[in-house]
Amino acid sequence: VQLQASGGGLVQAGGSLRLSCAASGRTFSRSVMGWFRQAPGKEREVVAVISSGGAAYYVDSVKDRFTISRDNRKNTVYLQMNSLKPEDTAVYYCAAGDTWWITTTPRDYGYWGQGTQVTVSS
Fold first, then answer.
1. Helix (H, G, I), strand (E, B) or coil at 120
2. Nearest 5 degrees, angle CA 119-CA 34-CA 16?
3. Cβ atoms < 10 Å from Cβ of 25
4. 4-45 pLDDT, tens digit each
5. What is the pLDDT of residues 42-51, one digit of tens each?
6. 3-state secondary structure of 88
7. Could you please report the per-residue DSSP string of 18-77?
């Protein structure tokens, strides 16, 4: 089983990026999927989570700027990030969980991608 994250990069404040996470090896259509991030010197934090049914959760700092979505036919989850801020700079990780409902607890996610760097310049 592999989760392959892509789409990170360097962008100016106010810009946009779209992250993708393609899963292979098994289907995750019935699993919660999420995006987490970790900035230097900080703990990993949840960014957005989407249930198998499409319900979404966002951490307060990204509400109204980020949108999580999934395409079960492609076994892929996306994170559209708009109005990016320097404080969004981090390594972003996608993850697939063992439940179908929304959970923000990292230990509920058994599969993790390798991470993709997002850097927002001021």
1. strand
2. 35
3. 10
4. 999 999 999 999 999 999 999 988 989 999 999 999 999 999
5. 999 999 999 9
6. helix
7. EEEEEEESS--TTS-EEEEEE-TTS--EEEEEE-TTS-EEE-GGGTTTEEEEEETTTTEE
